[in-house]
């Protein structure tokens, strides 16, 4: 589903963000990208959506080599990828329902499709009763659920989450993690960048650890820290 | 590329209303500029129409009597031919039918006058370009005496004054139109830039979820197009309904001073359509520039 083949990326005038990264994520996997700030986690995710270009190497997403993709095809790549961020990125002047519907409207989905999908997905994330609220009337955890609903409403093949629980307390975090796990069970490949030990340790999923842009560990059913054998 | 979707129309509408002050400024300047442009075209049409008999360098017209015989006409023709090229550069003949259609054009603003005339009452004429402008009065006096001649006209000075007046007005109006147009383009670009800034969050989300570049751009481009179009429609209305006032800025008919310059509704309509097309183009290009410049997708 996602394959990095000897990928390197350097931002102008700074040290390498990613160095010679080779990773293969299969369909339906749940993967944590861990590492301290500046280790290249966000760059890793932004390369998948082609918000950044790799300097070297090839990146394959859903069967396409991203580097070869002409600019006009990038939007179609992104329709296969849902994104969730630490800061939610909701539209403050639109209701919960409209925030989620917006994601479908702007890719030209029919009104009928929007009306049938949005309530369903909001029910799934547990906000069926708060469709008319504005984002600022919701708690952080609820706002993140809206963001997850927006990312998932188009049933993407891949869900990328960049520190999605970074602003949330442990109980709310657990709720979001259960939601992501559930989405993963529908067959969506989930890639989540985080630096929270407890989150990673509780899930026992595959862990890819980055340090200064290099993969230092790739472990199935791992925990955050290195385990001494 | 679902262009006229309700989404796109709604977004365009709300963009226009959100920045109402900027929108009005852009529309008004656009209208002023296009009115100046349309005014020039209207004046040109009026002047052309009034001086239609004296185009292509014609400086002297020998009007034959409406009742002149065929011999008188061909005699005159041979005499004129014999004077080429020493005294006359060239001459051409305008028969009754051509004179009638010309008459109707010149007096299209005076239907009563057209009503009392008909093709048989029209004088055929010879339109001449003299070899030397100074000799026109001598030539005219000579032909005036001949059989079958109704009158010889050489209104050189009046026409030159009319055309000079028009040229001055045209240059002033074109400079104004051009200058104000630059302002209008700047305002359109700025309005679109503000709209893009006001909607940066939406734009970010749209890119994130895979909206196509065109889908993101079209509402902004339609906004600029609308501004151009509305400005142009105002200019259209002004040039159309005030066409005779605009025409009178260049003076009155050089031959019949009591007759104001006149532009037919048909000609004014064509001018108006041209103005609307220019407005739409400028609006679309201005917003297209703004979108390319400020909306990286």
Overall description:
The complex is a heterodimer of chains A (229) and B (297). With 229 residues, chain A is an alpha/beta fold. Chain A has helices spanning 41-48, 74-78, 96-105, 111-124, 140-152, 170-185, 197-203, and strands spanning 2-10, 16-25, 30-34, 56-61, 64-65, 81-85, 158-162, 189-194, 206-211, 214-219. Chain A has a six-stranded mixed beta sheet, sandwiched between helices. A four-stranded antiparallel beta sheet of chain A has the order 2-1-4-5, with helices on one face. In chain A, α5 packs parallel to α6 (170-185). Chain A is globular and about 45 Å long. The model of chain A has no long low-confidence stretch (mean pLDDT 92). By secondary structure, chain B is of the alpha+beta class. Helix content of chain B is 68%, strand content 8%. Chain B is built from eleven helices and four strands. Chain B is elongated, with a radius of gyration of 28 Å. The model of chain B has no long low-confidence stretch (mean pLDDT 84). Classes of the chains: A alpha/beta (229), B alpha+beta (297). Chain A binds chain B through residues 49, 71-72, 75-83, 89, 91-92, 102-103, 105-108, 111, 150, 154, and chain B through 2, 5-7, 201-202, 204-213, 215-216.
Features of the shown structure:
heterodimer, A: alpha/beta, 4-stranded antiparallel beta sheet, 10 strands, 32% helix, B: 297 residues, alpha+beta, 11 helices, elongated
Structural class of chain A: alpha/beta
Rg of chain A computed from alpha carbons, rounded to a whole number of angstroms: 17 Å
Could you give the order of strands across the largest sheet of chain B?
2-3-1-4
How widely separated are the two ends of chain A? 31 Å
Secondary-structure blueprint:
The complex is a heterodimer of chains A (229) and B (297).
Chain A: E1 2-10, E2 16-25, E3 30-34, H1 41-48, E4 56-61, E5 64-65, H2 74-78, E6 81-85, H3 96-105, H4 111-124, H5 140-152, E7 158-162, H6 170-185, E8 189-194, H7 197-203, E9 206-211, E10 214-219
Parallel strand pairs in A: 3-8, 3-9, 6-7, 7-8
Antiparallel strand pairs in A: 1-2, 1-4, 4-5, 9-10
Chain B: H1 6-18, H2 20-50, E1 60-64, H3 70-82, E2 88-94, H4 96-106, H5 111-116, E3 125-130, H6 136-144, E4 149-153, H7 156-198, H8 200-209, H9 213-241, H10 243-248, H11 265-294
Antiparallel strand pairs in B: 1-3, 1-4, 2-3
């Amino acid at each position: 589903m996602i394959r990095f083949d000897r990928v390197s990326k350097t931002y102008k005038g700074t040290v390498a963000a990613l160095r010679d990264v080779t990773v293969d994520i299969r369909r339906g996997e749940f993967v944590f990208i861990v590492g301290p700030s500046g280790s290249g986690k966000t760059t890793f995710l932004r390369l998948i959506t082609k918000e950044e270009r790799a300097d070297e190497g090839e990146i394959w997403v859903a069967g396409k080599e991203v580097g070869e993709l002409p600019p006009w095809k990038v939007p179609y790549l992104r329709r296969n990828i849902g994104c969730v961020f630490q800061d939610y990125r909701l539209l403050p002047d639109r209701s919960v329902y409209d925030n989620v519907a917006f994601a479908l409207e702007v890719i030209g989905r029919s009104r009928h499709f929007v009306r049938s999908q949005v309530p369903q997905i909001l029910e799934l994330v547990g906000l069926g009763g708060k469709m008319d609220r504005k984002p600022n009337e919701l708690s952080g955890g609820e706002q993140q659920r809206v963001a997850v609903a927006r990312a998932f409403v188009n049933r993407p093949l891949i869900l990328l989450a960049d520190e999605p629980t970074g602003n949330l307390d442990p109980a709310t975090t657990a709720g979001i993690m259960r939601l992501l796990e559930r989405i993963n069970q529908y067959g969506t490949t989930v890639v989540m960048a985080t630096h929270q030990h407890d989150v990673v340790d509780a899930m026992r999923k595959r862990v890819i650890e980055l340090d200064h842009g290099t993969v230092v560990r790739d472990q199935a059913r791992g925990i955050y820290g290195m385990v001494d054998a | 590329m679902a262009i006229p979707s309700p989404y796109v129309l709604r977004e365009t509408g709300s963009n226009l209303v959100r920045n109402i002050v900027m929108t009005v400024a852009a529309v008004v300047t656009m209208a002023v500029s296009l009115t100046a442009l349309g005014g020039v075209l209207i004046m040109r049409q009026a002047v052309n129409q009034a001086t239609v008999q004296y185009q292509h360098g014609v400086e002297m017209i020998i009007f034959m009597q409406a009742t002149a015989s065929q011999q008188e006409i061909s005699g005159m023709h041979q005499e004129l031919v014999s004077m080429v090229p020493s005294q006359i550069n060239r001459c051409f003949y305008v028969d009754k039918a051509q004179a009638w259609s010309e008459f109707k054009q010149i007096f299209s603003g005076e239907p009563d006058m057209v009503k009392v005339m008909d093709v048989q009452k029209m004088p055929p004429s010879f339109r001449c370009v003299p070899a030397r402008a100074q000799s026109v009065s001598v030539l005219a006096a000579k032909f005036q005496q001949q059989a079958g001649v109704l009158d010889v006209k050489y209104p050189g000075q009046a026409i030159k004054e009319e055309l000079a007046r028009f040229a001055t007005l045209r240059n002033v109006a074109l400079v104004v139109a051009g200058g104000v147009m630059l302002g209008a383009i700047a305002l359109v670009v700025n309005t679109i830039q503000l709209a893009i800034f006001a909607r940066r969050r939406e734009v970010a989300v749209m890119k994130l979820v895979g909206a196509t570049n065109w889908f993101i751009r079209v509402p902004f481009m339609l906004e600029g197009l609308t501004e151009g179009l509305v400005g142009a429609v105002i200019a259209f209305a002004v040039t159309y309904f005030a066409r005779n006032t605009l025409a009178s800025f260049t003076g009155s008919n050089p031959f019949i001073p009591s007759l104001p310059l006149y532009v037919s509704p048909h000609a004014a309509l064509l001018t108006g359509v041209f103005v609307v097309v220019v407005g739409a183009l400028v609006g679309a290009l201005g917003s297209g520039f703004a979108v390319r410049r400020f909306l990286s997708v």
